[in-house]
Amino acid sequence: MTLVHENERHIYGEKGRECLDLMKAVNSPKLRTAFDFANFVQAGEKPLDNWPLLKPYTVHIHIKDALLADGKVVPAGQGDGQIEPILIDAYKSGYRGFLSLEPHLAAHGQFSGFSGPALFKTAVDALKAICRRANIPLAGV
Protein backbone atom coordinates (compact mmCIF):
# COMPACT_ATOMS: atom_id res chain seq x y z
CA MET A 1 0.00 0.00 0.00
CA THR A 2 1.20 3.49 -0.86
CA LEU A 3 -0.03 6.64 0.87
CA VAL A 4 -0.67 9.56 -1.47
CA HIS A 5 -0.48 13.20 -0.35
CA GLU A 6 -2.59 15.70 -2.29
CA ASN A 7 -1.54 19.34 -2.17
CA GLU A 8 -4.85 20.22 -0.53
CA ARG A 9 -5.56 23.83 0.41
CA HIS A 10 -5.10 25.15 3.93
CA ILE A 11 -2.82 22.36 5.17
CA TYR A 12 0.92 21.95 5.44
CA GLY A 13 1.67 20.55 2.03
CA GLU A 14 -0.51 22.86 -0.05
CA LYS A 15 2.51 24.55 -1.63
CA GLY A 16 5.12 22.89 -3.78
CA ARG A 17 8.06 23.38 -1.41
CA GLU A 18 5.99 21.99 1.47
CA CYS A 19 5.07 18.91 -0.58
CA LEU A 20 8.73 18.40 -1.42
CA ASP A 21 9.63 18.81 2.25
CA LEU A 22 7.15 16.08 3.18
CA MET A 23 8.50 13.72 0.54
CA LYS A 24 12.10 14.29 1.60
CA ALA A 25 11.37 14.18 5.35
CA VAL A 26 9.51 10.87 5.15
CA ASN A 27 11.87 9.62 2.43
CA SER A 28 9.88 6.49 1.61
CA PRO A 29 8.59 4.99 -1.63
CA LYS A 30 5.40 4.33 0.34
CA LEU A 31 4.57 8.07 0.36
CA ARG A 32 3.97 9.76 -2.99
CA THR A 33 2.04 12.78 -4.29
CA ALA A 34 -1.17 13.50 -6.12
CA PHE A 35 -0.62 16.61 -8.23
CA ASP A 36 -3.61 19.00 -8.20
CA PHE A 37 -3.19 21.96 -10.54
CA ALA A 38 -6.04 24.09 -9.15
CA ASN A 39 -4.97 23.69 -5.53
CA PHE A 40 -1.56 25.13 -6.39
CA VAL A 41 -3.20 28.01 -8.26
CA GLN A 42 -5.53 28.68 -5.33
CA ALA A 43 -2.48 28.72 -3.03
CA GLY A 44 -0.99 31.46 -5.25
CA GLU A 45 1.52 29.25 -7.03
CA LYS A 46 2.21 28.36 -10.65
CA PRO A 47 1.91 24.59 -11.10
CA LEU A 48 4.67 24.55 -13.73
CA ASP A 49 7.09 25.83 -11.07
CA ASN A 50 6.16 22.91 -8.81
CA TRP A 51 6.10 20.16 -11.42
CA PRO A 52 9.91 19.65 -11.61
CA LEU A 53 10.05 19.39 -7.80
CA LEU A 54 7.22 16.89 -7.48
CA LYS A 55 7.42 14.97 -10.76
CA PRO A 56 9.64 12.23 -9.28
CA TYR A 57 7.10 11.67 -6.49
CA THR A 58 3.86 12.00 -8.49
CA VAL A 59 1.77 8.86 -8.89
CA HIS A 60 -1.62 10.46 -9.42
CA ILE A 61 -2.82 13.58 -11.26
CA HIS A 62 -6.02 15.47 -10.43
CA ILE A 63 -7.42 17.41 -13.36
CA LYS A 64 -8.84 20.64 -12.00
CA ASP A 65 -7.99 24.16 -13.17
CA ALA A 66 -8.42 27.56 -11.52
CA LEU A 67 -7.80 31.27 -12.04
CA LEU A 68 -4.98 32.99 -10.15
CA ALA A 69 -7.01 36.21 -9.96
CA ASP A 70 -9.77 34.85 -7.74
CA GLY A 71 -9.24 31.10 -7.32
CA LYS A 72 -12.37 30.29 -9.31
CA VAL A 73 -12.38 26.72 -10.63
CA VAL A 74 -12.77 26.45 -14.41
CA PRO A 75 -12.59 23.62 -16.97
CA ALA A 76 -9.13 22.24 -17.70
CA GLY A 77 -7.10 24.53 -19.92
CA GLN A 78 -9.23 27.60 -19.19
CA GLY A 79 -7.35 28.66 -16.07
CA ASP A 80 -3.82 29.24 -14.88
CA GLY A 81 -3.08 25.61 -14.02
CA GLN A 82 -0.67 25.08 -16.92
CA ILE A 83 -2.23 21.65 -17.41
CA GLU A 84 -1.26 21.04 -21.02
CA PRO A 85 2.53 21.51 -20.75
CA ILE A 86 2.64 19.46 -17.55
CA LEU A 87 0.60 16.61 -19.04
CA ILE A 88 2.83 16.65 -22.13
CA ASP A 89 5.94 16.40 -19.97
CA ALA A 90 4.39 13.72 -17.75
CA TYR A 91 3.42 11.61 -20.77
CA LYS A 92 6.79 12.05 -22.50
CA SER A 93 8.49 11.09 -19.23
CA GLY A 94 6.56 7.84 -19.03
CA TYR A 95 3.63 8.69 -16.76
CA ARG A 96 0.84 6.20 -17.47
CA GLY A 97 -1.11 6.59 -14.25
CA PHE A 98 -4.58 7.91 -13.72
CA LEU A 99 -5.92 11.34 -14.58
CA SER A 100 -8.81 11.85 -12.22
CA LEU A 101 -11.33 14.55 -12.98
CA GLU A 102 -12.10 16.70 -9.99
CA PRO A 103 -13.85 19.60 -11.74
CA HIS A 104 -15.70 21.33 -8.85
CA LEU A 105 -17.41 23.53 -11.44
CA ALA A 106 -20.50 24.45 -9.40
CA ALA A 107 -20.78 25.67 -5.82
CA HIS A 108 -22.04 23.10 -3.35
CA GLY A 109 -21.23 23.21 0.34
CA GLN A 110 -17.94 24.06 2.02
CA PHE A 111 -15.66 22.68 -0.69
CA SER A 112 -17.63 23.66 -3.84
CA GLY A 113 -17.28 20.05 -4.92
CA PHE A 114 -20.29 19.63 -7.16
CA SER A 115 -20.42 19.62 -10.94
CA GLY A 116 -23.51 17.67 -11.98
CA PRO A 117 -23.87 15.76 -15.26
CA ALA A 118 -23.77 18.72 -17.67
CA LEU A 119 -20.75 20.41 -16.07
CA PHE A 120 -18.98 17.08 -15.66
CA LYS A 121 -19.34 16.56 -19.42
CA THR A 122 -17.83 20.04 -19.90
CA ALA A 123 -14.88 18.95 -17.74
CA VAL A 124 -14.45 15.68 -19.66
CA ASP A 125 -14.59 17.46 -23.02
CA ALA A 126 -11.98 20.01 -21.88
CA LEU A 127 -9.58 17.25 -20.78
CA LYS A 128 -10.14 15.28 -23.99
CA ALA A 129 -9.38 18.40 -26.05
CA ILE A 130 -6.09 18.95 -24.22
CA CYS A 131 -5.09 15.32 -24.71
CA ARG A 132 -6.02 15.39 -28.41
CA ARG A 133 -3.92 18.52 -29.00
CA ALA A 134 -1.00 17.01 -27.11
CA ASN A 135 -1.29 13.54 -28.72
CA ILE A 136 -1.81 11.93 -25.32
CA PRO A 137 -3.97 8.81 -25.68
CA LEU A 138 -6.67 8.18 -23.11
CA ALA A 139 -7.72 4.60 -22.38
CA GLY A 140 -11.18 3.78 -23.62
CA VAL A 141 -11.55 6.95 -25.68
Defining traits:
globular; two-stranded antiparallel sheet; 38% helix; alpha/beta; 141 residues; four-stranded parallel β-sheet
Please render the helix and strand layout as text.
Elements: E1 3-6, H1 16-26, E2 31-36, H2 37-42, H3 47-54, E3 58-63, E4 65-66, E5 73-74, H4 83-92, E6 99-101, H5 116-133
Parallel strand pairs: 1-2, 2-3, 3-6
Antiparallel strand pairs: 4-5
Description:
This protein is an alpha/beta fold. The chain has five helices and six strands. The strands form two sheets. It has a four-stranded parallel β-sheet with strand order 1-2-3-6. Strands 4-5 form a two-stranded antiparallel sheet. Strand 1, helix 1 and strand 2 form a beta-alpha-beta unit. Helix 1 runs parallel beside helix 3. It is globular and about 40 Å long. The mean pLDDT is 93.
State the gist of this model:
Helix content is 38%, strand content 16%.
Output the structural class.
alpha/beta
Approximate shape:
globular
Oligomer: single chain
Contiguous helical run count: 5
Which strand-content bin applies to the residues?
Answer: 15-25%
Give, in order, the helices and strands.
EHEHHEEEHEH
Number of E strands: 6
Rounded mean pLDDT is 93
Q: Any low-confidence stretches, pLDDT <50, length ≥5? A: none
Percent of residues in helices: 25-40%
